[in-house]
Amino acid sequence: MASLMEMKEIFRNADAVCFDVDSTVIREEGIDELAKFCGVGDAVAEMTRRAMGGTVTFKAALTARLGLIRPSYEQVQKLISDKPPQLTPGIRELVSRLHQRGVQVFLVSGGFQSIVEHVASQLNIPTANIYANRLKFYFNGEYAGFDETQPTAESGGKGKVITHLKEQFHFKKVVMIGDGATDMEACPPADCFIGFGGNIVRKQVKEKAKWYITHFDELLKELEER
């Protein structure tokens, strides 16, 4: 296991940094916002808490939550236009600094492609660098499930994405940053995991992560010091 000093060294020399999206890059949990928008907020928020705490498998929790919400194509688009996701303070500056240093930035999310694309566009992250879940709709726009073949649809999926990135791009050092259990379990294969508690603190992650931050300025400072 790497020491904190070694982890900071890995971060400063990373080829790629992968960010979780919900409650990390953005302030809210996208699926909870979608649930509120569709009128089933409380029931779904409870399911999300259980999923993030690691007590049920991610795919089972996602299937159950989406089965309750059943969002139409129109509702998803209206959510993005009426209540766009709010970026976490400091993320824009951090991603910009990583890009200046030639670091590849990826968004690896258990959330939904359409919402994550909106976030990526604000951070100048190309669509090709998004790994997220895809909602499916019938021709009339009604909910038809989600693409269960996406690696991010299941527990351990974020680790699979990082393994794929290392194989495809020959990255030597990959950092994963996120708030939840699914982010922490992606290391390894990630070379370093940084727990983020700036929007919500997940007890399990705070206790187990060797490097835990509550503001992205802490990471910007690490990059400025060298």
Plain-language structure description:
The protein is of the alpha/beta class. It folds into two domains: 2-27 and 84-222, HAD superfamily/HAD-like (Rossmann fold), CATH 3.40.50.1000; 30-80, Phosphoserine phosphatase, domain 2 (DNA polymerase, domain 1). It is 47% helix and 16% strand. It is built from twelve helices and eight strands. Strands 3-2-1-6-7-8 form a six-stranded parallel β-sheet. It has a two-stranded antiparallel ribbon with strand order 4-5. Helix 10 (181-184) links the parallel strand 6 (174-178) and strand 7. The two termini are 24 Å apart. Belongs to the HAD-like hydrolase superfamily. SerB family. One of its GO terms (cellular component) is cytoplasm. It holds the Pfam family Hydrolase. InterPro entries: HAD-like_SerB, HAD-like_sf, HAD_sf, PSP. Its cofactor is Mg(2+).
Structural features:
PSP, hydrolase, DNA polymerase, domain 1, 226 residues, alpha/beta, 6-stranded parallel sheet
Please sum up the structure shown.
With 226 residues, the chain is α/β, with parallel strands linked by helices. Helix content is 47%, strand content 16%.
Helix count, DSSP H or I runs of 4 or more residues: 12
Describe the strand arrangement of the main beta sheet, using strand numbers. Answer: 3-2-1-6-7-8
Strand content: 15-25%
Give a short account of the largest sheet: 6 strands, parallel
Helicity range: 40-55%
Give the termini separation.
24 Å
- Structural class per helix/strand content? alpha/beta
Shape: globular
What is the H/E order? HEHHHHHHEHEEEHEHEHEH
At CATH level 2, the architecture of the largest domain is 3-Layer(aba) Sandwich
Q: How many strand elements?
A: 8
Radius of gyration of CA atoms, rounded to a whole number? 17 Å
Mean pLDDT: 86
Count up the domains: 2
- What quaternary form is this? single chain
> For this structure, what is the CATH homologous superfamily of the largest domain?
HAD superfamily/HAD-like
Family: Belongs to the HAD-like hydrolase superfamily. SerB family.
GO biological process, one term: L-serine biosynthetic process
Protein name: Phosphoserine phosphatase
Pfam family, one: Hydrolase
